[in-house]
Amino acid sequence: MANTRSRVWSVAGLLAAAALSSGVLTAGAATAAPPIVGGEPAKIAEHPWVVYLTDTQGNQFCGGTVAKANKVITAAHCVSGDKPEAVQVVAGRESKQSNDGTVAKVTNIWVHPQYQDANSGSDVAVLTLGQDLPQQPLAIASKDDAPLYEAGKQASVLGWGATAEGGEASENLQKAEVPLTSDADCQKAYPQYKADAMVCAGLPQGGVDSCQGDSGGPLVVENKLVGIVSTGNGCARPNAPGIYTRVAAYHDDVQQQLDS
């Protein structure tokens, strides 16, 4: 898909996130930034199922969703090629500066077997944890949930990613409200858009979107996981909605992993 990029941190982005979390600002860096593009701070108590992924050094690079006590759904491009011991899941922590919640080890990584890259579809993975989490899981959309994907439906996207395109990560959980986009409009923005594998969300004028570091995080409609932050053309640009993995399309494969 031309001119798109996945919403996972690059090495440079991870270094910037690490500098920010340690309180070190590079020359010329802003001391404050607005919430996740067009969003606002969110309470983890109201969204207990949203988690973030870190490397073994504690650097956050993606998000995820608790779908079962010991299972987390994320994007394939976040963890493809990684060994389980290289990834940790942080649950119940609203601020990355705190020690709240649980840091869980990952014992297995399942990446959808048809996954190639974020622009080709099948951008979904399931992590198995070494312990059960106390957080309430979020239900996942199935093929019976077609009404949840109607254009114009209001959806919530959550994460700790960049607060602006090319910007710094958020220290606190952020939430943005975005309407789902029609398949036709998403096809215009992204010629290789696949309606059976993806769903788009965003405002025509831009200004509200997920961004780098939010990859793998949840897109929620009516208390169900309908999408996984996947890719897009920059962040919050006009006529360039965010692209999300269409969870309902992969329900059976994901459910098999949740039941295993």
Defining traits:
single chain; 260 residues; alpha+beta; Thrombin, subunit H; 2 domains; 9-stranded mixed sheet; 6-stranded antiparallel barrel; 4 helices; 30% strand; globular; serine-type endopeptidase activity; Serine protease; protease
Task: Record the SSE blueprint.
Elements lengths: L4 E2 L4 H11 L18 E2 L8 E5 L5 E9 L2 E4 L1 H4 L8 E4 L10 E10 L13 E5 L9 E2 L13 E6 L14 E6 L3 H7 L8 E4 L16 E4 L2 E9 L9 E5 L4 H9 L1
Parallel strand pairs: 9-14
Antiparallel strand pairs: 1-14, 2-11, 3-4, 3-6, 4-5, 5-8, 6-7, 7-8, 10-11, 10-13, 12-15, 13-14, 14-15
Keywords: Disulfide bond, Hydrolase, Protease, Serine protease, Signal
Protein name: Serine protease
Organism: Saccharopolyspora hirsuta
How does this structure look, described?
The chain contains four helices and 15 strands. The longest helix has 11 residues, at 11-21. The strands form two sheets. Strands 1, 2, 9, 10, 11, 12, 13, 14 and 15 form a nine-stranded mixed beta sheet that branches. The protein has helices spanning 11-21, 76-79, 183-189, 251-259; strands spanning 5-6, 40-41, 50-54, 60-68, 71-74, 88-91, 102-111, 125-129, 139-140, 154-159, 174-179, 198-201, 218-221, 224-232, 242-246. A hairpin with a 2-residue loop joins strand 4 and strand 5 (71-74). The protein is 12% helix and 30% strand. Mean pLDDT is 86; it is low at 1-5 and 9-35. It folds into two domains: 48-137 and 252-259, Thrombin, subunit H (Beta Barrel), CATH 2.40.10.10; 139-249, Thrombin, subunit H, CATH 2.40.10. The protein is of the alpha+beta class.
